[in-house]
Amino acid sequence: MLPVQVEGEWAKRPAYVLVETGHKEERDGKSVPAWKGLQIVPPTEKDLAIWFAKKAGKGLAVVTGAVSSLIILDFDGPDGEKLRQQLGLPVHVRTGSGGSHVYFEHPGWPVATLNSKAKHELGQRWTGLDIRGDGGYAIIPPSVNPSGPYTWESAPGDVLPLSRLPDDLRAFLGLLEPPKRPEPRPAATVTSYQGSRQDGQGRPPGELLVGRALDRVNSGEGRNNAGMWLATQLRDNGYSRGEAQAVMRDYAAQVPVQDAHGRHDPYSESEAAATLASAYSRPSREPWEDRRTLSTSTPAANRGDVRDVTLPDTFDVAGPVPVEPIGETGTGPVILTGDNAFQQVAAALQVRNVDGVVARRALSAEEVQRLVADRRALFVLNPSGAQERAFDAAGVEWYPLQDLQIRQNPETLNQALTEAMTTAWEASLQGSVPFLERDLLALADARLNRGGHTYPTGLAAFDEAIGGGFYDGLHVLGGVTGGGKTALALAVAQFNAQAGRPVLYVTYEQSRYELWGRVISSNTGVPLRQLRTGGTADRPVSGQLRTNERYQELTRSVAPHFTVIEGDGFEGGAWGTDRIAAQVRRMKAAYGAAPLVILDYLQRMPSGSDKEKRHQIDEVVMGLQVRLGRELNTPVLLISSVGRGKYGELVTAPLEERLGVFKESGGVEYTAYTASLLYPLGSTHIQALGLEDPPATGSSRAALKGLWKYLVLDLAKNREGEAPRQWVVRWYPATGKFELIQSIDPEQLNDLPPSSGRRSR
Fold first, then answer.
1. Would you tell me how many other CB atoms lie within 10 Å of the CB of residue 271?
2. Which among 200, 274, 269, 212 is positioned nearest to 238, based on CA atoms?
3. Residues 613-650: pLDDT tens digits?
4. Nearest 10 degrees: CA dihedral of 41, 46, 51, 53?
5. What distance in Å separates the CA atoms of residue 567 and residue 598, rounded to the nearest whole number?
6. Mapping DSSP to helix (H, G, I), strand (E, B) and coil, where does residue 435 land?
7. In sequence order, what are the beta bridge partners of 246?
8. Virtual torsion, Cα 167, 172, 178, 181, nearest 10 deg
9. Mind telling me which SUPFAM superfamilies this protein's record contains (predicted)?
């Protein structure tokens, strides 16, 4: 048995309580849970007593393999359920997400744990199937995770014989017969590469890279790992996808047909293609060249903190270059290189350095201030956004050195550095010329083609007013608690996810279960109160959802593009701007477009500051605009609570007064590109606009047409379009549906006599 987490991003992972019984490992100076020992020896009664002294917050898993004499087939999703039925297998455990686990006896020899997403052929031939064998585990009842409870559908202890599986599946999973004794694995068919070390474009030739990858295989590294290394080198050295595919095919043709254990398992071209696709979905890194290690006999005491380094063969350097300190009276420029490029830049500066340029790996705050005092220029290799902000704040004269090819011989690099520094300095004298000649045109093309970076709300007139939908940058929607702002945000999220556009929803108030419950209820008709309680013993919600076609459609069409994260820090730390930015990068790599980020709501977001709350909010807002909106080109819809007021009269209030309700939100209304409000439309104004009265709760009309409320969607600020604009919106709370009824002419409402409810001034 194994205790597991049940909530947050670490759900289903081994629980931290394992550390208390010595099942741990050290990682980055911290003790983290480790369960490898439990794959061999089952836990003791004392272990179990400690793990489950407190039942809350933990789930239970069974360790599969020889230690438990179990293997478990995991059928997930509609495809998995269809496959299980085709195989005629019963269900032993129904998972929280509606999948099924089927228990089989262990054959007595090692059985691999396989995931269909990682094992490409398994996913193709038996879609929706994973196997938990040796080195695996599976959640068991009565565990509950964010997807729902795990339940027994067969008597605990029932196990099927392997003969219930067809021979082709048993053979693929290694369950048909014991593996033969491994034969020595033949070496990869590779000969020493004798050709040029650079092709016509200055890149390492594909043959050289394939040879180095095969060297890794022959030294004992797995074929998949070596293939991933090769794919990343092709990416980093500027190979196109078409060129890289040809090189990967050469690699697949030369690697052994046996795996690391000597079993016959050819490395297919499809696996090579999948590896290549994974590598090219990530941003490029610094290119690789064949290297040799240079050592030195220089005593450590004379070398400062510089260690032996690895440099390209093209470098003619006798040993590591010592770090030059920032002198008290120095006058030359400083190049900030980081760790990776320091030795190359320092070696290049030794060739010729008439300006007294100094290379530095890093700079302390005191050294930056020394540069300011001495009016020395700073040049930074590929500065990050954080560095840019820090140097700007420090007041240092600094210039970026972008896209500088470091892997050159010292003489060539010296010339390249001189030209790059001159170009960077001259660029500061050109005003907006480079922006108009290059950057603005590129941005215009990017906006023309950004497609997935514009996220409509589904309310056509509102979308038209803001330019087609929420675009890169910060947008704010304000309203009071219970006023419909979260419901509208969920409707926008679902509308975009349904269309295949990625959405990241970070909730700081409600749980993921609660938010998904609202979406599920509005789509399936299962009352939200039942979802909150789980239903009844006679009619559990989980059973209703498993057979609900709309729920299955929601799972297939919306869920893959709609990520909900609980941002309150209950599990794994609070979700501030940094963590959200990291998640956005992951989603951009996966979907090829920045997601729409919805944050619900602003006042609960962590700031990491001990300043007054209003100033904390200002820092969060500016961080979101800069880090997400500008640096990652991400649309952000920020939900904000606002000050309570006479909302029935707000529709006719001056614009300054309407924007003033954001007083609890720092300066968000000034920073955001669009600022919208959602508030009730008063009964007097409903009559003045000639609208049908909304049905009363419990009336026959409500039962027939559904209960709705009238709201005002007030676009109070629109940096790139017309504002203010106001519309009447009909909101159906039970279904989460919003309908834009008509625009509002405030002058028409201002003409009402004072006795009709118009506010006097």
1. 18
2. 200
3. 677 788 888 889 888 888 888 999 999 988 755 666 78
4. 160
5. 12
6. helix
7. none
8. 140
9. P-loop containing nucleoside triphosphate hydrolases, Prim-pol domain
Strand partners, 700: none
- Pick from 190, 196, 192: which is nearest to 313 by CA? 196
Provide the token pair at 708: 């709705």
At 285 the pLDDT is 63
756: tokens are 């009709």
Listed in sequence order, the residues at least 6 apart from 391 whose beta carbon sits closer than 8 Å to its beta carbon are: 368, 378, 380, 383, 398
DSSP 12: T
CB 113 within 8 A of CB 132: yes
Report yes or no on whether pTM surpasses 0.90: no
Q: What is the dihedral of CA 96, 101, 106, 111, to 10 degrees?
A: -80
CB atoms within 10 A of CB 204: 23
CA distances from 640 to 160, 603, 673, 695 (A): 55, 7, 15, 29
Q: Answer for the pair 89, 102: CB distance below 8 angstroms, yes or no.
A: yes
Nearest to 229 by CA among 180, 183, 272, 291: 272
Query: Which residue type sits at 436?
Result: L
> How would DSSP label each residue in 623-663?
HIIIIIIITS--EEEEEEE-----HHHHTTS-HHHHHGGGG
Q: H/E element holding 513?
A: helix 512-524
61 and 4 in contact (C-beta within 8 Å)? yes
pLDDT of residue 290: 46
Distance CA 148, CA 157 (A): 23
pLDDT reported for residue 271: 76
CA–CA dist 633, 650 (Å, integer): 34
pLDDT tens-place string over residues 204-252: 888 888 888 887 777 666 777 788 888 888 888 888 888 888 899 888 8
Element (H, E) at 740: strand 737-743
Of 50-64, 348-362, 431-445, 739-753, the one with minimum mean pLDDT is: 431-445
Average pLDDT, integer, range 502-522: 92
Token match 């000969």: residue? 191
The pLDDT assigned to 446 comes to 57
